[in-house]
Amino acid sequence: MIRAAGAVVWRLDDERPLVAVVHRPRYDDWSLPKGKLHDDEDPAAGAVREVAEETGQSVVLGRRLGEVDYVVPPSAGSRHGPKVVEYWAARATGGRFTGGDEVDQMRWLPPERAAELLSYPWDRIVLSRFVAVPATTATVLLVRHGRAGSRSEWGADDRLRPLSDLGLRQSEQLRIRLRLFGPQRVFSAPRVRCVETVRGVAEDVGTKVVEDERFAEEGYWADPATGRTLLLDIARHDGPAVVCSQGKVIPDLVRTLAANSPGGQLELGEEVPSRKGSAWLLSLYRDRLVAADYYPPMA
């Protein structure tokens, strides 16, 4: 199986989204930016890398746009067979295109014109997923803290229980993954294990971790509506935000927001997973959840 990743790269032009399409002279085709993953590469990181290589654009990832699969024919070269490509919406934040042997042209086009130019039906499917939701969504990365050892073996105040060695590794992996989504603000339940999980993210951003009891289990369940209101208020401000919370808070937050999605159409399944070291990427538009993507822990 050939694994690849790519993105619908977009920017605003007079409040209208334009998307990037690229021309590959080897195949004389027009496609969305994408490419093969390196061994054991995180697909999200691979999407950002491939976009930079093909378009020269730095990007901030947003919602996941799903996968497409097709068969690469033997005539295409040495690597052929079944191929799976995972895509994201990706907002361009800067850069300059320089043509080369792999990609010699890039165009910024309205989505409807891009769809007409794209050579392959699977690219048009991905583009249709992109236009189904407004491009200018707000992003909240809802993180569960990493592993912190056994509560029963911790003899002190549980609020002070720190991350274990595994939890520290998870926090470093989250630090690398979350930067792909361009966080600008960091919030946390006032629990040592929660703050430790996202402290590295805050250091990368050059900000402090803002602690709020309403993201802790005791504070949230004392008044769940207030906790949800706080998260929506965070989403309204400019820039993606990280919020680190606990396992008895995150599923209720996600499920309640999904129930209030436009038409209540956002399906999450019977369970809302929230493993330690995991994250939900919540995409909101006008205080309504329009997409929710779960990222399981990397360790």
- Provide the residue-averaged pLDDT: 95
Shape: globular
How far apart are the termini? 23 Å
Number of strands: 13
What Rg is obtained from the alpha carbons, in whole angstroms?
Answer: 20 Å
Helices and strands, with pairings:
Layout: E1 2-13, E2 16-24, E3 29-31, E4 34-36, H1 43-55, E5 57-72, E6 81-95, E7 105-109, H2 111-117, H3 121-131, E8 138-144, H4 165-178, E9 185-188, H5 192-205, E10 209-211, H6 217-222, H7 224-236, E11 241-245, H8 250-259, E12 279-285, E13 288-295
Parallel strand pairs: 1-6, 8-11, 9-10, 9-11
Antiparallel strand pairs: 1-2, 1-4, 2-3, 2-7, 5-6, 8-12, 12-13
Can you describe this structure in just a few lines?
The protein has 299 residues and is α/β, with parallel strands linked by helices.
Give a verbal description of the structure.
The protein has 299 residues and is an alpha/beta fold. Helix content is 29%, strand content 32%. The chain has eight helices and 13 strands. Strands 1, 2, 3, 4, 5, 6 and 7 form a seven-stranded mixed beta sheet that branches. A six-stranded mixed beta sheet has the order 10-9-11-8-12-13. The longest helix has 14 residues. The chain starts with a strand and ends with a strand.
Question: Which labels suit this protein?
Answer:
alpha/beta; globular
